[in-house]
Amino acid sequence: MTKTEEFDATPLSVDETRTLSILADMIIPASDEYGAPSAGDAAIVEAILTDSERKRPRLIAALSTLEGLSREAHDVGFGDLSDEQRDGIVASFRDEHGRAADMIAALTVQCYYRDDRVMISLGMEPRPPHPDGYVVDQGDWSLLDQVRRRDEFFRKPD
């Protein structure tokens, strides 16, 4: 499949969007303690949809698979399951369709940690990392001494 064939901005149906929102909420729930929204928040789900344009067919297929597992096990759609039933379906989905589950998790996490509200709840400025960068506390560089003493195991360039 070429990159052009993979690009597909087909919008998700209302049920697919609901399933994605519920799944994102399961991946990262809201935190009252830190004042952070869940990843199922409408703005974050919208960011997931925007970022997923190139993977849209795979995302739709994954959500369809999740829906199929739900209907097969409980005769209802994923959005109509109880929390306990959803946990079981998601566990099965992760076991049987790990790559699809990883794709959804990666999209969710990437979009979640770009949200300004999340950055503020982490005590960080809601801004891009460049050009200003971030201050990183210096660690204990002596932890690398064993690595520095190791024999070279790579081929030197010509």
N→C terminal distance: 36 Å
Which percent range describes the beta-strand content?
Answer: under 5%
The 3D shape can be described as: extended
Helix content: 55-70%
The H-and-E topology, N to C, reads as HHHHHHHH
Strand runs, count: 0
Structural class by SSE content: mainly alpha
Instruction: Describe the main β-sheet briefly.
Output: none
Topology:
Blueprint: H1 3-6, H2 14-27, H3 42-51, H4 56-74, H5 83-96, H6 98-112, H7 116-121, H8 145-149
Features:
158 residues, mainly alpha, disordered N terminus
How does this structure look, described?
This protein has 158 residues and is an all-alpha fold. The protein has one domain (3-126). It contains 8 helices and no strands. The chain has helices at 3-6, 14-27, 42-51, 56-74, 83-96, 98-112, 116-121, 145-149. Helix 4 (56-74) crosses helix 5 (83-96) and helix 5 (83-96) packs across helix 6 (98-112). The longest helix has 19 residues, at 56-74. The two termini are 36 Å apart. The relative contact order is 0.14.
Q: Could you give a short description of this structure?
A:
By secondary structure, the protein is mainly alpha-helical. It has helices at 3-6, 14-27, 42-51, 56-74, 83-96, 98-112, 116-121, 145-149. It contains 8 helices and no strands.
